[in-house]
Amino acid sequence: MKDRPLILVTNDDSYISPGIHALVAAVRPFGDVVVVAPDKPQSGMGHAITVNNILRLHPVDQFEGIEAYGCSGTPVDCVKLAITHVLKRRPDLLVSGINHGANNSINVLYSGTMSAAVEGAMEGIPSIGFSLCNFSWEADFSGAVEYASRVVKAALENGIPPKTCLNVNIPDIPVSEIRGIKVCRQAEAYWADSYEKRTDPHGGTYFWLTGMFEGRDKGEDTDIFALENNYVSVVPVQFDMTAHHAIASLNSWNYEG
Amino acid sequence: MKDRPLILVTNDDSYISPGIHALVAAVRPFGDVVVVAPDKPQSGMGHAITVNNILRLHPVDQFEGIEAYGCSGTPVDCVKLAITHVLKRRPDLLVSGINHGANNSINVLYSGTMSAAVEGAMEGIPSIGFSLCNFSWEADFSGAVEYASRVVKAALENGIPPKTCLNVNIPDIPVSEIRGIKVCRQAEAYWADSYEKRTDPHGGTYFWLTGMFEGRDKGEDTDIFALENNYVSVVPVQFDMTAHHAIASLNSWNYEG
């Protein structure tokens, strides 16, 4: 009899977040689950890894009956440590999330949740990142759990295309209002950044990042369009960053100085 | 008379690194230079941004006659703070580096140097990341300066294709032995990670990331091939992570649960 799938669960909001507990509930029926997740919030960490400092890993008992660890590093550190030190064999699936907050469009690059999934794909592991379009700690994850379950089932049945992971965003609406799943491309969008300048109690200046998200892409094949129209968005994500279409024009340049 | 180009310089090795001073020397003839760089090493920070903590920015006098700042954040934080708070107008060019160590192939995703350039491209600024294939603080940057100068001149003359930045790696050989510039794609490669497990003086366990880099791509159109054959590699890099070729197959899945 075939072994049950081994499923690695991670995220960027830390192992105490409601979102990762929702994800464990969603994937538990499909296999044996092991959790390796940051021990503190790691939002916005992108594909950061810890190279100039040490990492700690400690067992946690937040997940009843499931082997689980907190890691002092980034989401990508969690994936690397899980594969090399925690798991007894290569996992059959990596799932990351469910993030508290959307990771559509350009946010795939800033997102620790998605970077963990990208790292999984780089390691050759079928990987999926899940995000709910609600930043609140008290968000309702019931629709997200239902659709995470559907996507995981389909991924285990079909296999994720090689060198690709999935970026799944779930709209923040009751599950009965979700109209289904749309496979999309990443929308073009932009963060109109600003910083709030403040003075500390000692007279020093410091800054807080703020900023407004600007969708700039009216395409009906985008993740933003899907979410605005009450669909779950599924974007296949690759880690070849080459702008292949630009190679020809760069070959026409004169580099002789 | 047209203004001289405004050139923003950043990196991930901090403003005290020899590499950023080499880059300032390379670009200074082409325009007015402003430096905003991390105040401590930020290698491996990828596209991380600081969202849950404050940022500090302070003037530094390491660059004679040049406006320069140290920033407490990541390379991407430096770019965002420079554009929104430091520069009086949008820069005409962003250059990042010269990194102490190669950033070819898959390392574009881990690299703070390249993530700063990607952030610049996301902001619509022509952006280039430079890396020398030598991790040493005492590396010889003379070949890197010569070729950084050639690439910057060509980029200012031709304009970088939109939504693209350049990833330039320079082999660690005397400038007379560099055979020229090759426009390439990102090679497929892999980090065979491992962690060294140690015990601290108090009996606790901790880990250091180690790992071996494995090129897995024999293509002669890759950055690894160019560097191995004594060429400077130039890879156009995009920030659309969509695996467009995978959309059709994902649309054939049954998501009905």
Question: Explain this structure to me?
Answer:
- The structure is a homodimer of 257-residue chains.
- Chain A has 257 residues and is an alpha/beta fold.
- Chain A has six helices and eleven strands.
- Chain A has helices at 18-27, 75-86, 112-122, 142-158, 223-228, 247-250; strands spanning 6-10, 32-38, 57-59, 67-71, 93-100, 127-132, 164-170, 181-183, 189-199, 205-215, 232-238.
- In chain A, β3 (57-59) and β4 form a beta hairpin.
- Chain A is globular and about 60 Å long.
- The mean pLDDT of chain A is 96.
- Chains A and B meet through α2, α3, α4, β9 and β10 of A and α2, α3, α4, β9 and β10 of B.
Topology readout:
2 copies of one chain form a homodimer.
Chain A (H helix, E strand, L loop, with lengths): L5 E5 L7 H10 L4 E7 L18 E3 L7 E5 L3 H12 L6 E8 L11 H11 L4 E6 L9 H17 L5 E7 L10 E3 L5 E11 L5 E11 L7 H6 L3 E7 L8 H4 L7
Parallel strand pairs in A: 1-2, 1-5, 2-4, 5-6, 6-7, 8-11
Antiparallel strand pairs in A: 3-4, 7-11, 9-10
